[in-house]
Amino acid sequence: ARRAPHRLEQQEQRGIRRVAGVAREPGPIALSLPLHCSVAINRVLRGQGARIGRGQAAQPRQVGDREVKAVLLDVDGVLFDSAEAIYQTFKTVLRERGLKCPSRGKTMKHFGLQVPPWLKEMGICSGTGIAREIEERFVDEFLPKHSAPERGLVETLNALRAKKIAVGVVTSQTKYQAEKSLKLVGFEFDCVVTGDDGKPKPAPDLLLNALKKLGVKKKDAVYVGDTWVDVEAGRAAGVKTLILARPYNKGLPNRTRSLKRLIARRHTSNKIVIL
Fold this sequence. Notes:
Blueprint: H1 7-13, E1 17-19, E2 22-24, H2 38-45, E3 70-73, H3 83-96, H4 104-108, H5 115-121, H6 130-146, H7 153-162, E4 166-170, H8 175-185, E5 191-193, H9 205-214, E6 221-225, H10 228-237, E7 240-244, E8 255-256
Helix pairs in contact: 3-6, 6-8
């Protein structure tokens, strides 16, 4: 005898989903992870009772009336794929001073920290002016030589602005570094918060400072970083944090492959499908 459909199957056939124990009609999603990144999507939607199988395209679903009003971006590793420029800066400056530079893996292990604590983690004293030289030569010499703004960056930033979404920068770079770096981008950000404006990441201070400048609540913002420092800062600040996928951050949560995925091809009203 043919088995009668289970009640949940009947509901699914009618297009109804169970979300947190409540039957919900499918609808557009206001905040999610990239449509083609099923692993990251599962991380977000699993808590809402939905699940998407590997390799399946995610269909937008309503998860609330939450609307993104601000996107905050890190500089190194997000606006620029700057890992090579950073490593070459450390290696060159240290060797010129007669110091041994650790391997690439050991050096980049601390990516995301400001230069003085980074050097300290590597067992190198920064009191001889090494930190200042690394900071300045990185943006003056090595960043323009070894890196460029992320592909599609300005297009993505303009698309966000067209949706009346504030776009800010939150970086542990010094003000001098940030000014030099952002000149290479060629975009006027709504706010720029640097390591000179408060306790650097992984403390939440810089993110909270940016939200205050923009007049945006933490629940209405998304932060995009690339290192464990960004994950911890976002968690401490209570801001949804996404990680731009790089070879050095494979173990971090909520990774997305491209900044272009900040904007969905389909959106409604002033809401966007975020990463």
